[in-house]
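User: quick one
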Amino acid sequence: MAYITNDDKMLQAVLLNEKLMKFGNYTPAEIGTIYQALDSDNYVINTVAQIIKRTGEGASEKELWKEINEYLKRNV
Amino acid sequence: MIIKEIRIKNFRSYYGDKNEFKFSDGLTLILGDNGDGKTTLFEALQWLFNTTIDKGNFDHISEMCKSTLEIGDQDEVSVYMSFEHDGEKSVEKSFTFERTGDKSFRLGTLNFKGYETIGSERVLVNGKNLLDISYDAFIQRFSMFKGESELNVFNDRTALKQLVDKFSDIRKFDELVDNANSFRDKSNVAYLKEMKSDDKVSKEAKSLEMEITHLAKEIHQTKSDINDKKTSIEIFSTQLEKLEASQEASERYKDIEDRRKSLSDKKVKLLSRIDAVDYNHSLLDKLWVLCPFPSIFNEFKQKCSALSKEKRRQEKDFDRKQAEEIGKLKAVKEIQGTLMNGATELPWYLPTPEVMEESIHDNVCKVCGRVAKEGSDPYNFMVMKLEEYKKHVEIKLKNELESKKIEEKFLFKNEYIEELHNLSISLSGSNESNIARIAQDIIDRRELVDRLTHDLKGIEEKIQDIMDEKARLLIQAGDIPESVLEKDFNDIKGLFNQKGRAEVRLTELNKELEKLENQMKDCQNKMDDLDPQSSKVKEFRNVYKALEEIANAFGVAQKENLRNFLVELEEKANYYLEKLSVNDFHGEIHLVQTADESTEIKLFSSNGTEIKKKSGSQETVMYISILFAISDFTSEKRDEDYPLIFDAATSSFGDLKEDDFYNVINTIKKQCIIVTKDFMTKGVVRMDDVDKLNCPVYRIKKDEGFNQSNLATIRTTVEKIKN
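Assistant: Done. Structure below.
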C-alpha cells in the first residue's frame, strides 16, 4: 500500500464531503493524491488541494487568498 | 526513547555518586516510604529533562555533601541518563559548587552534555538538543506523572487539541479551517461589493446586504448565547453529577468531619486541662527537693529508732558487767575474812586501832585487862591484830578505788544518737505530714498530666487515622473537590432549577437561531436571485459560493477527524482497561466532547449506564489506560517509544490489587518506571509479595542514623532488591 501523506489524508477528508461532491460535481475516484488534485481540472478539487498544499508550505493567508481568488475567477 | 540507566550525584538527598538505577524495557518498580526520596528522584529526572534551565540551583545541592566540604573544596551535582533512541545515547546535566565561606557557596556554570554513537564512535553533542530531539516537552507532558491527581491529562483543556494535532490521522487542521473560512468571508465581501456597484441591482443589493449584515450579527450573538447556555448546562450537569455521585462520599465525608471535629474538641479540652495544671517555680522546687522526703524520713526514723534501741541494749549489758565486777570485789573481801584463822574472832575493825595501839603501848590488853608483856603471845597477838587492821584498811581503800573506777566507766561518751532521735521526733508530726501532703499533691498533678497526655496521644492517633481515612476518601472521590463534598445534598435542588431554566432558554435560543437562519437564507436567496447587469458580479458570486462550500467541508472534516481520533483513542484505552482490570469489573471508557472543545473521560457499564461512583483504583486504572493508549499513538504515528514515569500514582490501590496490576503492566510492552510506597508495611518491604513480581525492583530509603532536624544527616540509599 502506498504511503499516504498527511496532505493526502486531509484532501480526502475534505473532498469526500457529500455536499461538496454534489456541488463540485466530482466522484471519489477523481480525488487521488494531493499532486493529482493540484493537476485536476475540477476547480473544487484543485482549490482544496491548493489550500492544503500552500498552507503546508507556509504561504501567508494574504498570498494564498490572492492565488485562490485568481484561480477561481479563471476557472469557476 | 527507552531509558537504560539513571545516575544521580549529590542531588538533594541523593548524596555521593553511588545512586544508580538500571531499567528494563518493561516495568521497573522503585519502592520507598514517605520521606525516602521518591519525589526527589522524580524531580531529579524533571530537572534533567527540563531543557529551558541554564543555571545551577543551590536548592539542588545535597546538604550532606555541603557539610563535608572545607572552604575552597569543590564538588558537583549531576544527573546522568543513558537511553536508546535510534542508537545508544546519553545526556548528563551538571553544575559544580565550591564552598567559599562558613555558609556561602559559589555555583559553577551548568553543563549539559550529550553523547551519541555514530558508527562505532561516541560523539559529544549538545545535551539540550539531543534531549529535545529524543524526548521533547510534548512527550514529557504525557509521560511523567506525579500523584494520582495528575493522571487525567484532559484536566488541561488544551491537551486534546495538542494530541489531535500530534497524533490524529489528519494533523494541523486548524490553520486550514481558518484559511478556508477567511477566503469564504473575503469572497463574500468582494461579491457583495460588486453587487452594490451594479447599476441594475445596486439598491436592492444594498438593502439586502444591510439585512444580511444585521442578521449575521444576530446569528453570531445567538450562537454565542447558545454556546454560553450549553456551557452553563454542562457545568450544572457536571456539578449535579458530581453531587449525585458524591452523595455517598459526601455523607462519609461529613461523618469523618464530625468525628474529626469531636476529637479535635476533646483534644482542645485535654490541652487546656494540661495547661491548667500548675507547673510554677515553687512546684518545681518542691518537685526536685522534697518529693522523696517522706520515704527518706521514714527510713531515717527507722534508723534512729534502731540505733537508740541498740544503744540501750549495749548500755544494759555494760551496766550488768560493771555490777558483776563490783560484786566480785566485795566477794573477794568476804573470802579473805574467813581465811584469817580457824577460830571465831572479832571483826577486823574491833577493837579500834587506837585501843590496840594503847594496849601495846601499855602492855595490857584493854579488852580483857590482862597483862601482855612485850614479846609475849598476847603482846604479839595484839601487834598482829593491829597489822591485820591496817591491811584491811588498805585493801578496803584499794577496792573502793577500783569500784569507783568501774563505776566511773561509760560505754557512750556522746549523745549523738539521742540528738538524732530528737531530730527525728521534731521532724515528725505536722512537719512530716505537711511535706507528705505537698509531695502527694505533686505526684497527683504529675500523674494527672501523664494520664491526660496519654489520653491526648490516643486522641491524636485517632485524629490521624481519621485524616488518613479522609485522604483515602478524597482520592476515591477523584476530581470531586472537598468544597463539593462539604455541600449539602440539598444544593441539588437549586442546581437542578438553574439547569432547568438554562435548558428552557437554550430551546428558545435554538428556535430563535433557526428563525434567524431561515431569514438569512431567504435574504441570501433573494440576493442570489438578483440578476446583475455585470458578468463580473456573477463571477464573484460563483467564487463565493465555491469557497462557502469548501469552507463548510473543511469544518466538517475537522470535526470528523476529531471524532475519529477520539474513537481510536477510546478503543485503545478500552483494550488496556480490560488488560489492567483482569479480575475486576472495568466497564468501558467513553471520551465525550464538551462544548469548549475539550474532552471528558467517562466510564460506562456495557448496558449503557454511566458509572458515576468510581472507586479510586478504578479511576486510576482508567486514566493509566488512556495514557497507555496515548503512548501507543507515539509508537504508531511517530514510530517512537517513550517511558511512562509515575510517582505515587497508585495510592488508592489496596494490597490485593498491587500484585495483579504490576504483573499485568509488566506484560505490556511499554517501559514503565513506577515510584511507589506499595508493597510496604510500616516502612518494611513485604518481600513475599515482591517475590511474586516479575520485574526488577529497587528499594530507596533514608540511611540510618539521621537526625530529624538536620538535613545534612539525611541521605537516600539505593539498593536493587530484585533482579
